[in-house]
Design a protein that fits this description.
By secondary structure, the chain is mainly alpha-helical. The chain has helices at about 5-20, 35-55, 70-100, 105-110, 115-130, 135-155, 160-190, 195-225, 230-255, 270-285. Helix 8 packs antiparallel against helix 9. The radius of gyration is 22 Å and the shape is flat. The termini are far apart. The model has no long low-confidence stretch (mean pLDDT about 90). It comes from Penicillium crustosum. It is found in: Membrane.
């Protein structure tokens, strides 16, 4: 067990997320003394953790070789932004439907049903297309879903129709998260040894929650800083911020990530074992 890594990473994450999230509600915003203090402490602990994990402990909580897999680092960074947009969408879409569109709680539940149905269809049907379409193309489709989920709410007019704006936003939302999450897990299972797959899967899940926590904190800052524009425009500013994050994640995927279509092929462990066996036979000959 990597106790130093655990004892450093948890308070670092808590302090950074708290400083960002609470800055919108602190008495003097970022000028409130404890906000920059907690942020600085969190960043210092994060820096110490990176040093300890990379050069001190023998069995680090997050080994560096996980990121040596080709495209792993840019994929994780892209997912940090993309998953962050999901958290913004889930919160502020509900607030917009409730505060601006006047929807009741049960009506909001009904309006969100397309996300549940779409998620079920994509989860079940994903196996039918993952081996037919290159993963990069699917990832770009997912990115477009993230972009669309924010863009439809950013441009919705007062009195906008559910079927013209909210419904397609819900479809885009489920396209974004369900394709990218499944695709990331397929990428991990085929490119990492069995001993690292659980760790990498945990990394993807941590990226999901950390992305939501951090980006949602900045979304609250956008909402607070634009509150003088009125509730509608303040919400729209948040959705434009969400759209910008999704576009940034998409650009990272376009320029730095390449994922093949899923195939029924040997795992990394099996390929390495076969290579070692072949080398052994060559030596015997």
């Amino acid at each position: 067990m990597d106790w130093p890594g655990a004892c450093l990473s948890i308070p670092a994450a808590v302090l950074i997320v708290f400083a960002i999230a609470d800055s919108s509600y602190a008495p003097q915003g970022w000028k409130t003394p404890y906000i920059p203090l907690f942020l600085a402490l969190g960043l210092i602990l994060l820096g110490i953790m990176i040093y300890v994990e990379g050069w001190v402990v023998k069995n680090p909580l997050l080994p560096g070789d996980v990121f040596r897999v080709k495209y792993m680092m840019p994929l994780a960074i892209a997912l940090l932004f993309l998953y962050g947009t999901l958290g913004i969408f889930l919160l502020y879409a509900v607030l917009y439907m409730s505060d601006i569109m006047g929807a009741s709680p049960m009506q909001i539940v009904a309006w969100a049903v397309p996300m549940a149905v779409g998620g079920l269809i994509l989860s079940v049907g994903g196996g039918m297309i993952f081996h037919r379409v290159p993963g990069t193309i699917l990832m770009l489709i997912s990115c477009l879903g993230y972009v669309g989920s924010g863009l439809f709410f950013a441009v919705i007019p007062i009195g906008g129709n559910y079927w013209a704006f909210v419904f397609p936003a819900m479809i885009c939302g489920t396209v974004g998260i369900d394709i990218s999450f499944n695709l990331a897990n397929v990428f991990i299972t085929t490119n990492l040894p069995k001993a690292r797959q659980g760790l990498a899967g945990a990394l993807i899940n941590c990226t999901l929650h950390m992305g939501i926590a951090v980006m949602l904190g900045f979304a609250d800052i956008v909402h607070t800083q634009t509150s003088e524009l009125g509730t509608v425009d303040s919400y729209k500013a948040v959705f434009w911020y969400q759209t910008g994050l999704a576009i940034l994640g998409m650009l990272i995927v376009i320029f730095f990530v390449r994922i093949r279509e899923a195939k029924s092929e040997l795992t990394l462990d099996e390929r390495e074992a076969m290579a070692a066996e072949g080398n052994g036979r060559a030596v015997d000959v």
